[in-house]
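Entry for S-adenosylmethionine complex. Fields follow.
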Amino acid sequence: MAKSSKGKGSNKQRGAHSSKPSSGHTSTHRHVESKHGANKSGKNFPVKLAMWDFDQCDPKRCSGKKLERLGIIKSLRVGQKFQGIVVSPNGKSVVCPNDRNIVEENGAAVVECSWARLDEVPFNKIGGRNERLLPYLVAANQVNYGRPWRLNCVEALAACFAIVGRLDLATELLSHFSWGLQFLELNKELLEVYQRCTDADSIKKAEDAWLEQIEKEAQERKARNPGDDLWLTGNVNHKKGHGVTQNENKDEAEVGSTWEQGENSEYESDESAADGEEAYHGPVKYDSLGNEITLSESSDPEYSDSEELLEEPDFLGDNSFSNDSDIRDVTVGLSKVAIKGDVTEQ
Ligand SMILES: C[S@@+](CC[C@H](N)C(=O)[O-])C[C@H]1O[C@@H](n2cnc3c(N)ncnc32)[C@H](O)[C@@H]1O
């Protein structure tokens, strides 16, 4: 990794596959938790929030670190388990409205790590009794905008709250991010569908029905426009066969299989790019056809360091898109968002 900053409560791995807990969580760094997740900084959140932070991401772009800076999430060490809902790639069932009591009484936690380095996370030493996957939802964060399933930590927590019927908590959490409420907007219809469910089975059925529907709509659009329409089919010349494109292969779009499907060789072999660091060579914007417009730093008032990107994201000028990537289309409900296909893994 090109750059790393050791955060409080860090579980940074010493070796690529080490599962040894960090000693970084010293008593001086430990958050003092009181009822309902209030911590030392005095800030409060109505339910307990926690994360295991493996320090694999750019701290300036990391939503978990930002929540920690805001003082509303507690860092857990490897070896510690969490009693509430653990929203995790290691989950076996999905978050559902029946989880509401667990969330309200014991809170929710996430695993702050890089998507590209999930195999380094000692899942057997973290987690808890209530580990859950999230059903199909689309990211709105500036790193993986438009990408299904790969939510960042704040989106994952908010999704969990929204599904169990606590939209108020989801809204409160996301309001700390300038792009945050867009996540709820982008997934509004689907979140409402999930909220009407009860258990994990009903969520799975609703998810399957949704995926079938968006695939059907995509097929119908293709049938109506058999030509090579970039906005409908993506740039086939550049297709690399990675990531999950709902419209292309629904079978690959199963919850649980997405973690593997999304790993692409290029970014995995280039950690700095995977973490959205060195992949950026200056401000880039795209015209209405997806052509890249190169801007000089001085000509772009929005160009700044990545801290500002976290605060004031510009989806079109986001450095998460590599220069030679394909255009990938993602269907979000009835609206389709054409986006650059290769996204960073953070
Ligand atoms: C891999 S980390 C990436 C975090 C990112 N660096 C950030 O800035 O927040 C995202 C975490 O959110 C949770 N998460 C996101 N999408 C999920 C999904 N579809 N199912 C289960 N957990 C998910 C998991 O805890 C996962 O480890």
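NOTE: The pocket of S-adenosylmethionine is lined by residues 57, 61-64, 87-89, 91, 110-113, 115, 133-134, 149-153, 156, 346 (CB under 6 Å).
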